[in-house]
């Protein structure tokens, strides 16, 4: 069974919204972690970005975290995690 992608972002972030739309349009179940509402999510993105707050971040299975991935990058990552 494929791992459910994790999306770290913020409700006001246009790039986060675009990734949510991509997942919805492609029927991809995902978990959304709002970095403004979760200290753990905020710390996770800092850990992924050498202490800096950068989002959106997407984690698909065991693949390296992706910062603001393009639709093509998301498609490729999802294909590697069937």
Q: In CATH terms, what is the fold-level topology?
A: Glutaredoxin
| Overall outline | globular
In the CATH hierarchy, what is the class? Alpha Beta
Output the helix-strand order: EHEHEEH
Strand content: 15-25%
Distance between the termini: 7 Å
The biggest beta sheet, please? 4 strands, mixed
> For the largest beta sheet, what order do the strands appear in spatially?
2-1-3-4
Helix/strand/pairing category: alpha+beta
How many domains in all? 1
Mean pLDDT: 94
CATH architecture: 3-Layer(aba) Sandwich
Number of strands: 4
- Helix percent reads 25-40%
Q: Count up the helices.
A: 3
Q: Give the C-alpha Rg.
A: 12 Å
Point out poorly predicted stretches: none
Which labels suit this protein?
82 residues, Glutaredoxin, 4 strands, globular, oxidoreductase
Q: Could you characterize what this model shows?
A:
- GO terms for molecular function: oxidoreductase activity.
- InterPro entries: Glutaredoxin (IPR002109), Thioredoxin-like_sf (IPR036249).
- Keywords: Oxidoreductase.
- Residues 7-61 form the Glutaredoxin domain.
- The chain is of the alpha+beta class.
- It has a single domain, classed as Glutaredoxin (3-Layer(aba) Sandwich).
- 38% of the residues lie in helices and 16% in strands.
- It is built from three helices and four strands.
- It has helices at 14-25, 39-48, 71-79, and strands at residues 6-9, 31-34, 57-59, 66-67.
- The chain has a four-stranded mixed β-sheet with strand order 2-1-3-4, with helices on both faces.
- A hairpin with a 6-residue loop joins strand 3 (57-59) and strand 4.
- The protein is globular and about 30 Å long.
- The model has no long low-confidence stretch (mean pLDDT 94).
